[in-house]
Amino acid sequence: MKYRFKPTENFWESFYDLSSSQKDSTRRAWKIFRENPFDPRLRTHKIHKLSALYGRTIYAVDIEGDLRAIFFIKGDCIVTVDIGTHDIYKG
């Protein structure tokens, strides 16, 4: 399926707070993510606690070390919600 992508304002705020090396890692991961958000290199996985909290399936992708991006799918649109450490899983 070909997806459209919509980052939230919160995602951009968190992205701009990253270090320059983390931003570079995110840009590299983004190239893979745009082609296939479930590419095995991203280790995409469901976040059960957030999924239960928001009543929709929330996924995370591993970018580097403890850096994750979380998103959900709405029809043909992928909404990137936040980026950061595991602390973003707390909702």
In whole angstroms, how far apart are the ends?
28 Å
Encode the helix/strand succession as letters.
Answer: EHHEHEEE
Number of domains: 1
Q: Which strand order spans the largest sheet, edge to edge or round the barrel?
A: 1-5-4-3-2
Which word captures the global form? globular
Radius of gyration from the CA trace? 12 Å
In what range is the share of β-strand residues?
25-35%
- The beta-strand count equals 5
Number of helices: 3
CATH fold type: YaeB-like fold
Most strands sheet: 5 strands, mixed
Query: Please, what is the CATH homologous superfamily?
Result: RelE-like
CATH architectural type: 2-Layer Sandwich
Helix content: 25-40%
Which blocks of ≥5 consecutive residues have pLDDT under 50? none
Averaged pLDDT: 94
Structural class: alpha+beta
Broad CATH class: Alpha Beta
